[in-house]
Amino acid sequence: MTLRLTPLLLAGLLLAAAPAATAQKKNRKTTPSSTASLAGNAESAIKEADIKRDLFALAGDKYRGREGGTLDELRASSWLAEQIRAIGLEPAGDDGTYFQWFNLQRTRLTPGSTLSIGSHRLRPGHDAVITAPTNARVTAPLVFVGTATPAELAKVDVKGKAVALQISGAPTDGISYRRYLFGKLRDQAAELTKAGAVAVVFISDAPAQAVYDHWSHIFERGRYGLPGDANVKVPAEQTPVVWLPSSDLSWARQAGQQFSTELKVETFAYPSVNIVAKQPGTDAQLKNEYVLFSTHQDHDGVRAAVAGDSIYNGADDNATGCAALLAIMRAFKQQPASRSALFVYHGAEERGLLGSRYFSDKPTVPRESIVAVLNAEMMGRNAPDSAALLGSTAPHLNSSDLVRTALAANQAGPQFKLDVEWDKATHPEGWYFRSDHLPYARLGIPAIMYTSLLHADYHTPKDEPARIDYAKLLRMTQWMYLTGWAVANRPTPPAREVGFKLER
């Protein structure tokens, strides 16, 4: 499906992008109407067939899920750089290349770490989750305390013992159950440790088991950060916290068992990469400013098989964003804008927004020259006529000016029904804080995220290229392009919100 945007509609979009009181600069060579015509012509370079071809190539099994910090991510990044070279954009990474290299720091349990409960020998990271990598050597009697209510704990002296309990409860403050559960594991373990427990063993109830099935794999790899981050420093010996599936309850609750573990931690660094390219602007002054189009190329890699499939392809998350940026590049190459367009594929987003944290801290262009960040994150699923624009609702709103431009582009183009709930501070998923626009927004740079939101295949092997709605992805790409084109041609940068402050 291709949108037919008239010059009149696009001219209106460009006018909406500029404050009414601001006159055109004298050195401008084009009127809004003529600039709109150029945008309409360049939009023809954005083709559904190209997007589909690129997405199938990137999110097929060849790149094995593009796990951050692996050869698979680096091979996929090399493929993307080759596509960018073929389109004709200039390298904007380090040393005249498309690449900006950075190191991940990883802290994990060594393969030789051991764990046993009674007669059950468990493999850490496989049969049992260790919620945080820690050095620990513990041999102690195991006591089961039910759900660890005050009445149950009053009957047991936990000092010097390993304490087993079944997870229970539900959130009461509006956060998602997953966030509630991870907080509960942390906080309840801390309380039991303070009471004298030398190890804590959580056993899933039914709701926790659903999270265990979907999310326990995130603990397998340990912790990741940039060198110097507090979370990846080798910890001193700490109380081990173990999380078991619900199927282990029958034997884990038995009396008279011994808990024994020897956990050892190692830490090391290895590379990930950002891919950076630019299309220079045409205006003698404005070409020194950049509209940054953002996405990430990594996903979860190869994990334990689910229904026989072990590759987490990440088609929606986030090969959709990768294919969209290639399409937008083709449009800007066909017709450059007044400002320069900067394209950044961030590495290791799934490791904790590491590539965007690194680039925003060490950009390859002057940071003050970045006038806006348009971030593509999961743009190809759910209802064909709906989408969301994150960063459009306070306290996440850091540029009303940029948001007005994006909303005008939506009206001029795809006319999606916009879901505003996911952008609210009260939304249980906290979705605003989970993609690459965030480090830029924290620096005060106007930033928004284009997304079609989560779905049941999120972070599972079912996130496959065949499940993408390519007609919708085309329209999401066009919306993002139209916004960026308007920002790149307006006389002044988007104004920043005075007093912007995130809730966390």
Automatic annotation (TrEMBL):
<keyword id="KW-0732">Signal</keyword>
<dbReference type="GO" id="GO:0006508">
    <property type="term" value="P:proteolysis"/>
</dbReference>
<protein>
    <submittedName>
        <fullName>Peptidase M28</fullName>
    </submittedName>
</protein>
<feature type="domain" description="Peptidase M28">
    <location>
        <begin position="274"/>
        <end position="480"/>
    </location>
</feature>
<dbReference type="GO" id="GO:0008235">
    <property type="term" value="F:metalloexopeptidase activity"/>
</dbReference>
<dbReference type="InterPro" id="IPR046450">
    <property type="entry name" value="PA_dom_sf"/>
</dbReference>
<dbReference type="InterPro" id="IPR007484">
    <property type="entry name" value="Peptidase_M28"/>
</dbReference>
<dbReference type="Pfam" id="PF04389">
    <property type="entry name" value="Peptidase_M28"/>
</dbReference>
<feature type="signal peptide">
    <location>
        <begin position="1"/>
        <end position="23"/>
    </location>
</feature>
<dbReference type="InterPro" id="IPR045175">
    <property type="entry name" value="M28_fam"/>
</dbReference>
